[in-house]
């Protein structure tokens, strides 16, 4: 097998494509022949030693992937050789093969698109947990999605629409706004066109008829967090999903008081561990929605696995719409 190996977590440039022994699954494990792996923001942080999870060195990065079960270990009964699966393991995805606990594998329909499957679990589970569990989104409410053309943003648009909400997408270019409208957003705001934060706030006010959004989904942080929060509706919920822009914003707490609003943290990874039954039910619902066509991962492009450094560069340029996928 071959894999991208991180032996010194100082950045993407330190990764190397190496031949390694093909691993054998132990009890409760399966070996997956990886067909596709998606690139997520944590995959960048983890090779820079900036992520909250710090694997023992050396490790193979790549948190999320899809493929076919090639071998099963002792005690594995829920999966069989030849079964297509998607998996979110945290590491191991940027390779031709990997061994993972069978319990972390999501069985897939036989004819599913494995490239789409590779970009399914993290973004859709995060967005479903954020909007429907933490945000308690109801049909007829309005959602403002920041960073709406990215992986979690495109998932949030589709899930909010599936829940019967009105969606306002905010993105950093006209191209990205057009994508958001194509996948279901009711309106779109171009950050670059609006320019200053006050102009952005005015645009949100205009698109909501002065009421403001009931739920704000923010995976970005940065300069637009405060003007977005200032625009929130009475009893609104501001979902803190992540800080893709880099800076962690400071929100004046008096705004929450004046609007009767809630600032709600979203950490799907810990939810999945602490509330495993609820998480399994959620993944089941998402899989049904996918097979029914209510949601569908947005794939910007697929690159050969050997071009991982180029994929990282594209993600860093913020030119990606949806998800980047690496294929074997």
UniProtKB/TrEMBL annotation:
InterPro entries: ADH-like_C, ADH-like_N, ER, GroES-like_sf, NAD(P)-bd_dom_sf, Quin_OxRdtase/zeta-crystal_CS, Zn-ADH-like_protein. One of its GO terms (molecular function) is zinc ion binding. Pfam families: ADH_N, ADH_zinc_N. SUPFAM superfamilies: GroES-like (SSF50129), NAD(P)-binding Rossmann-fold domains (SSF51735). Gene3D superfamilies: Medium-chain alcohol dehydrogenases, catalytic domain, NAD(P)-binding Rossmann-like Domain. Residues 11-326 form the Enoyl reductase (ER) domain. This is NADPH:quinone oxidoreductase family protein.
């Amino acid at each position: 097998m071959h894999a991208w190996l991180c032996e010194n977590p100082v950045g993407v440039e330190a990764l190397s494509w190496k031949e390694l022994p093909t691993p054998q699954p132990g009890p409760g494990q399966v070996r997956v022949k990886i067909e596709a792996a998606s690139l997520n923001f944590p995959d960048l942080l983890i090779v820079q030693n900036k992520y909250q999870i710090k694997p023992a060195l050396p490790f193979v990065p790549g948190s999320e992937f899809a493929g076919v079960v090639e071998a099963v270990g002792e005690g594995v009964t829920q999966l069989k050789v030849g079964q297509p699966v998607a998996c979110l393991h945290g590491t191991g995805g940027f390779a031709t093969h990997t061994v993972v606990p069978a319990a972390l594998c999501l069985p897939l329909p036989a004819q599913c698109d494995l490239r789409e499957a590779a970009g399914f679990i993290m973004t859709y589970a995060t967005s479903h947990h954020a909007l429907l569990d933490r945000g308690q989104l109801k049909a007829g409410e309005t959602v403002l999605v920041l960073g709406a053309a990215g992986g979690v943003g495109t998932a949030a648009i589709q899930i909010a629409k599936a829940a019967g909400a009105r969606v306002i997408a905010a993105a950093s270019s006209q191209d990205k706004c057009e994508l958001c409208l194509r996948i279901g957003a009711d309106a779109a705001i171009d950050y670059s066109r609006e320019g200053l934060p006050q102009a952005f706030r005015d645009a949100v006010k205009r698109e909501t008829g002065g009421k403001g959004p009931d739920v704000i989904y923010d995976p970005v942080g940065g300069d637009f967090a405060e003007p977005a929060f200032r625009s929130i509706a009475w009893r609104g919920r501001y979902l803190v999903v992540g800080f893709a822009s880099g800076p962690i914003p400071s929100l004046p707490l008096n705004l929450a008081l004046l609007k009767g609003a809630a600032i709600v943290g979203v950490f799907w990874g810990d939810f999945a561990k602490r509330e495993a039954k609820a998480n399994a039910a959620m993944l089941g619902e998402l899989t049904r929605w996918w097979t029914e066509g209510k949601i569908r991962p947005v794939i910007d492009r697929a690159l050969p696995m050997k071009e991982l450094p180029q994929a990282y560069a594209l993600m860093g340029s913020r030119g990606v719409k949806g998800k980047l996928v690496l294929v074997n």
